[in-house]
Amino acid sequence: MECKKCGNTLRSGENFCTICGYYNDREEAKKEEKKKLDVDFDDDDDDDFFSDPNKESKEEVVETEEFFPEENIEVEDLLPSFIGEDYEKMKEEPFNLYACLLNWLYCIYRKLYIEGILGLIITSAVIIFLRFYSLIYFIIQLPILGYFFNRYYLSFSRKKVEKIINNNKKLTRTALENLCKKKGRVNGIVTLFLYAIFLVGTIAGLVFIHPKLPTGIYAKKNAEYYSTCSEYLKTVYQDVLNNPQYVYIQEGVCYVQETTPSYYDVYLKGTASNHNVYFYYSTKSGRIVLEETTEDQIEYEVKEREGTITSGEKALLERLREVEKRYNNIFNQAEAESKKKDRIEKHSFVFSKEEIVR
Predict the structure, then answer these.
(1) Tens of pLDDT, residue by residue, the chain (358 residues)
(2) How many of the other CB atoms lie within 10 Å of CB of 144?
(3) Cβ contacts of 288 within 8 Å, gap of 6 or more
(4) Which pTM value belongs to this model?
């Protein structure tokens, strides 16, 4: 039995059409079929009719024309059915906040499965293998996705709707709208399922894959930084020994600048006359240069307490105090990095006096 409205073939016992939703009364259909047979039997051309089972009666041709009226259905007419209630918003607004916040999950939610899955795979890889650049990745990627999503999705939807129209030319407008609703719109269940897989995969990668990678990636670079720092500290140690004021060196620290790894900041800590003395050397000029020493800090601090310090001396005192502060920051950072062994690229190193003079 065929649907009286759209011509779709109905299954046995099925009254409602799965394409257009029209209700077909089987009893009424049987009566009409019997009436057609009676008319065909009395027709003069009944022999030709029964001899050619593929031949259609005039009534059937007219009925078919009623099912499939010649109607010019454009892609834009069906886009609201395919996209849903957000159609006007996507058409008018250049930025999609949901795409920006939900990221690739929103692509999957909108049935952009290929784009969404590839995006989740890339995101997971960045988190696992380039963990320290993840923040930069999200800062760049999130607004870009929010800005381009509406335009891309509208283009994607037009192609899908055009394909639906070309593949179902015999369907009525109502049937095409129902088909667009089924093929388009959103899918929350698949989104949650793939998001769960993404979380499990990413966490597993961080636990089982990531700890094994940096040993080979960072170990060589850290050893190179350590060796260069050691050479610089030996050089500045010899320079301090030539200082006319006697200073007993205790330890030293070295900081490799993250933005310019060829630049090193080298510090030595010693004691002289029962107070700490710091020496700060720089390699920015291509050679080791003494930038600051806190040998005169005690003298300026005495003047400060007595109220006899000048404005220039006070500014210099603050600068010398900053040297001690930077030294302590590098020392603390080096201790924190040492606990992570070679799982990160280190930039701060601490050397005892024994290691310096070795």
Answers:
(1) 677 777 777 777 777 777 776 777 777 766 666 665 554 444 444 444 444 555 444 444 434 434 444 458 899 999 999 999 999 999 999 999 999 999 999 999 999 999 999 999 999 999 988 877 888 999 999 999 999 999 999 999 999 999 999 999 888 999 999 999 999 999 999 999 999 999 999 999 888 876 565 666 788 888 999 999 999 999 999 988 887 667 788 999 999 988 787 899 999 999 887 889 999 999 876 788 999 999 888 899 999 999 999 999 999 999 999 999 999 999 999 999 988 877 788 999 999 999 998 8
(2) 11
(3) 232, 235, 236, 239, 266, 281, 282
(4) 0.47
Cβ-based burial of 174 (10 A; exposed 0-12, middle 13-18, buried ≥19):
middle
Least Cα distance to 178 among 11, 6, 9 occurs for: 6
* Cα distances (angstroms) measured from residue 344 to each of 84, 207, 210, 215, 255: 48, 15, 11, 9, 15
Distance of alpha carbon 92 from alpha carbon 150, whole angstroms: 9
Ranges of each domain in the chain: 1-67, 75-212, 214-357
d(CA 227, CA 279): 20
